[in-house]
């Protein structure tokens, strides 16, 4: 059988080209994915940046630790506590102590970097920064900047006043710094949460332990950082870990889609090849071949293709990994330092996975080949009878039923789970597979429906297209299936993101009733003077609020963090916001209570809950009201008394009775101008604040869809080329009947376009069903947002498939017509 398989591959190489290319690309992607995963698992620890030259860094409490019967539960605090003063006093006895301060600096006039950070000059030596021009700052209005965007002697306007640049230092790549004098930095940022100590680490640790033994409040949470641990004193020390996690998710999704579509393409190719070779298998059965021998022949063909394609894919992966690595780094999907390692196990995994995919894809076709009877050798009919086997019926219906049942169960149990990225990326796969298996059932009626009007027009083109497509069900289904997959993936993935973005935008608009919103220019928030000016604006009723966090221990084992909005005046909240209250009353909200959402385990109005604020402070608060779950953005509300010192970053403004809106707006803008704040209408702020899909998420989805489209192109072209030799006689008959070359080519092109249209409609139907599940979940979560189908993207995909299918069908037909066999008498 191996000899027969090799002879078949040699004579029917066009039939297996699509499977070979699809497998090679899939193995290449798996090799790249494996290398990226291996590199991320062996990623080096990020070295300290701002304190690379500091002997020891002492940091205030930054970890919340809650004891439970089963052990301590920890979480990173949103706000770091200052190092207690008694601890600082003990450290000053050991050596020089330099307090660190960080605060945003906003440069006006469109100059400078996007987000510079202010520091005291004494901390510059710990990076270390070295002056390359000018001198160190000595006066309150003097600064040293990184990056050379301003030269010594220049004056720059900032939200911290007009500053004179007296020196520059080379940038180190991790921040854009503005260094003030230590005294001025202490005025701008009185709070210091960490400090550098010029002393032995052992002595520093002993001093901290003594403070804990002496009962110094907050001393137990103080951390002594040395060596690589000094990176925890940098801004966002976990950004590399988060980026690598996102990168692994991206490549995992890409690898999963690649494997899914590879199996689909290979199985489709072998199924169509077996259908075309019925007479050949019938002759082998007449010659005495057993069903088992036929099955082994098909599997041997798949094994040969799998070995060759997997080997080629590993080579392609070795050459394709570096460019893809540069792309993910350039798109911000991976840290700038990310590089591929020299691991070899990803190639072994990719090779054997490719071979397994080839065998799995050909398994069903091999069983169909084994059922071929000797009578098939005499078959001449072109019509496909029984294109949908019992196994295909059962598999398709089972997958469809599974998809629907799991959707109903998810809607009944936790509708919010359907809104998670992991769910809406994987859930469409069941529907797509079911639709592809059941495609032959609906291809014939759908084809007749699409060609009903063209078939009635003058001329025979429409009638021929209808009969050819409806008669060759296997050929039509094999060509429509890859189009179905790609259109369905495009509609489901991009549609899910667009639907979810629209739902969140609708929520944000519904919650905002403020006439105007004043937003702070940075995380530092508005200073007290700005708030006083806002309160003094005639006709304005302001509601200042701050972004905060609240932690709650659920079921005694899980420490859950929730985003919170801290409002200064609970009464003003009612005038500027329309909260989606499910139970309770906002009017009962005060300093001893909290507003939670239905996602909380405890959400009974009137019950008391133990919570921890952003700085780890413990509180027991009464539940005043419960908000609907929504898309997950309906957070928690506390008062400013429970905000742990979070700065006011937003001021919602309602108009008093009889107030002139234009005059109020002008007064608000004048009040926030000195601080660099921005005032906008409530509607404009809601539109700007509506969360959209992140650039990394969109880039990842486009990568996945690009892979799917590439596979679809391979499958479409391969299917058309496989069918071309068998249709030469059919085209010759049309020429004998009087059709011109142009008419024959128009029939061929129109048939291909019709089949692509069938696949597009089926794909849109699958995407619509998938998005209907998300719409139902949103409705159950009280978010009335309609599903969004990405017509432009789906149309683009369908157009590419149409061009490929028409080109791949017309070119072989034109070449055949130019040969003698394609003309009358040939």
From TrEMBL:
<feature type="transmembrane region" description="Helical">
    <location>
        <begin position="699"/>
        <end position="723"/>
    </location>
</feature>
<keyword id="KW-0472">Membrane</keyword>
<feature type="transmembrane region" description="Helical">
    <location>
        <begin position="476"/>
        <end position="500"/>
    </location>
</feature>
<keyword id="KW-1003">Cell membrane</keyword>
<feature type="domain" description="ABC3 transporter permease C-terminal">
    <location>
        <begin position="703"/>
        <end position="818"/>
    </location>
</feature>
<feature type="transmembrane region" description="Helical">
    <location>
        <begin position="789"/>
        <end position="817"/>
    </location>
</feature>
<protein>
    <submittedName>
        <fullName>ABC transporter permease</fullName>
    </submittedName>
</protein>
<feature type="transmembrane region" description="Helical">
    <location>
        <begin position="298"/>
        <end position="319"/>
    </location>
</feature>
<feature type="transmembrane region" description="Helical">
    <location>
        <begin position="349"/>
        <end position="370"/>
    </location>
</feature>
<dbReference type="InterPro" id="IPR003838">
    <property type="entry name" value="ABC3_permease_C"/>
</dbReference>
<feature type="transmembrane region" description="Helical">
    <location>
        <begin position="391"/>
        <end position="412"/>
    </location>
</feature>
<feature type="domain" description="ABC3 transporter permease C-terminal">
    <location>
        <begin position="254"/>
        <end position="373"/>
    </location>
</feature>
<dbReference type="Pfam" id="PF02687">
    <property type="entry name" value="FtsX"/>
</dbReference>
<keyword id="KW-0812">Transmembrane</keyword>
<comment type="similarity">
    <text>Belongs to the ABC-4 integral membrane protein family.</text>
</comment>
<feature type="transmembrane region" description="Helical">
    <location>
        <begin position="249"/>
        <end position="275"/>
    </location>
</feature>
<feature type="transmembrane region" description="Helical">
    <location>
        <begin position="744"/>
        <end position="769"/>
    </location>
</feature>
<feature type="transmembrane region" description="Helical">
    <location>
        <begin position="424"/>
        <end position="443"/>
    </location>
</feature>
<dbReference type="InterPro" id="IPR050250">
    <property type="entry name" value="Macrolide_Exporter_MacB"/>
</dbReference>
<keyword id="KW-1133">Transmembrane helix</keyword>
């Amino acid at each position: 059988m191996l000899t027969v398989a090799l002879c078949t591959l040699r004579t029917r190489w066009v039939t297996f080209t699509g499977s070979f290319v699809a497998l090679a690309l899939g193995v290449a992607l798996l090799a790249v994915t494996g290398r990226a995963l291996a590199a991320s698992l062996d990623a080096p620890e990020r070295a300290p940046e701002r304190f690379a030259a500091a002997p020891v860094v002492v940091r205030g409490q930054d970890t919340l630790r809650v004891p439970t019967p089963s052990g301590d539960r920890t979480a990173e605090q949103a706000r770091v506590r200052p190092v207690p003063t008694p601890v600082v006093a003990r450290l000053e006895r050991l050596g020089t102590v330099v307090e660190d301060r960080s605060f945003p600096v906003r440069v006006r006039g469109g100059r400078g970097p996007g987000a510079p950070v202010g520091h005291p000059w004494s901390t510059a030596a710990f990076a270390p920064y070295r002056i390359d021009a000018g001198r160190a700052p000595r006066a309150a209005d003097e600064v040293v900047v990184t990056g050379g965007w301003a030269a010594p002697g220049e004056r720059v306007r900032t939200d911290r006043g007009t500053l004179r640049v007296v020196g520059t230092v080379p940038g180190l790549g991790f921040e854009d710094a503005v260094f003030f004098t230590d005294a001025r930095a202490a005025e701008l940022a009185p709070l210091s949460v960490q400090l550098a100590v010029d002393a032995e680490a052992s002595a520093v640790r002993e001093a901290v332990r003594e403070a804990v033994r002496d009962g110094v409040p907050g001393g137990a949470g103080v951390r002594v950082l040395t060596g690589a641990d000094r990176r925890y004193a940098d801004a966002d020390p976990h950004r590399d870990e988060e980026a690598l996690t996102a990168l692994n998710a991206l490549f995992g999704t890409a690898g999963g889609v690649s494997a899914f579509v590879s199996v689909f393409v290979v199985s489709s190719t072998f199924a169509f090849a077996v259908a075309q070779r019925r007479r050949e298998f019938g002759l082998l059965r007449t010659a005495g071949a057993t069903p088992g021998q036929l099955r082994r022949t098909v599997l041997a063909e798949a094994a040969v293709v799998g070995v060759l394609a997997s080997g080629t894919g590993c080579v392609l992966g070795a050459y394709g990994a570096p460019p893809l690595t540069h792309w993910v780094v350039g798109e911000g999907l991976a840290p700038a330092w990310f590089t591929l390692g020299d691991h070899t196990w990803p190639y072994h995994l990719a090779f054997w996975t490719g071979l397994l995919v080839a065998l799995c894809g050909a398994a069903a076709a091999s069983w169909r080949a084994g059922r071929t009877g000797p009578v098939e050798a005499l078959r001449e009919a072109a019509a496909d009878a029984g294109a949908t086997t019992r196994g295909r019926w059962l598999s398709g219906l089972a997958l469809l039923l599974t998809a629907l049942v799991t959707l109903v169960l998810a809607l009944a149990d936790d509708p919010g789970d359907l809104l998670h990225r992991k769910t809406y990326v994987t859930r469409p796969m069941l529907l797509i597979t079911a639709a592809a298996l059941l495609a032959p059932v609906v291809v014939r009626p759908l084809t007749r429906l699409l060609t009903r009007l063209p078939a009635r027009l003058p001329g025979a083109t429409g009638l021929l297209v209808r009969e050819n497509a409806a008669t060759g069900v296997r050929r039509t289904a094999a060509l429509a299936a890859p189009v179905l997959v790609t259109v369905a993936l495009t509609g489901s993935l991009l549609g899910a993101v667009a639907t979810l973005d629209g739902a969140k935008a609708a929520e944000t608009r519904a919650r905002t009733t403020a006439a105007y919103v004043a937003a702070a220019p940075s995380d530092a928030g508005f200073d007290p003077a700005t708030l006083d000016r806002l309160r003094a604006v005639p006709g304005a009723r302001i509601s200042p609020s701050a972004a905060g966090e609240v932690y709650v221990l659920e079921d005694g084992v899980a420490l859950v963090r929730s985003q919170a909005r801290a409002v200064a005046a609970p009464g003003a909240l009612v005038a500027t916001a329309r909260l989606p209250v499910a139970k309770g009353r906002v009017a009962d909200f005060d300093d001893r209570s909290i507003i939670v959402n239905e996602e909380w385990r405890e959400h009974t109005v009137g019950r008391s809950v133990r919570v921890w604020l952003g700085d780890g402070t413990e509180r027991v608060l009464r539940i005043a009201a419960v908000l609907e779950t929504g898309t997950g953005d309906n957070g928690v509300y506390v008062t400013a008394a429970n905000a742990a010192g979070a700065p006011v970053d937003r001021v919602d403004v309602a108009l008093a009775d009889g107030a002139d809106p234009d005059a109020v707006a002008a007064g608000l803008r004048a009040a926030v101008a000195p601080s660099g704040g921005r005032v906008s209408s409530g509607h404009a702020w809601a539109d700007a604040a509506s969360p959209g899909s992140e650039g990394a998420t969109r880039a990842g989805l486009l990568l996945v869809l690009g892979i799917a489209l590439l596979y679809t192109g391979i499958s479409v072209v391969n299917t058309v080329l496989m069918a071309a030799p068998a249709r030469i006689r059919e085209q010759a008959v049309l020429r004998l009947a009087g059709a011109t070359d142009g008419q024959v080519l128009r029939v061929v092109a129109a048939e291909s376009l019709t089949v692509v249209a069938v696949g597009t409609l089926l794909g849109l139907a699958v995407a619509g069903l998938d998005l209907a599940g998300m719409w139902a979940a949103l409705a159950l979560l009280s978010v009335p947002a309609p599903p969004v189908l990405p017509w432009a993207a789906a149309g683009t995909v369908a157009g590419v498939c149409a061009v490929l299918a028409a080109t791949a069908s017309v070119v072989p037909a034109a070449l055949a017509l130019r040969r003698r066999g394609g003309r009358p008498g040939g």
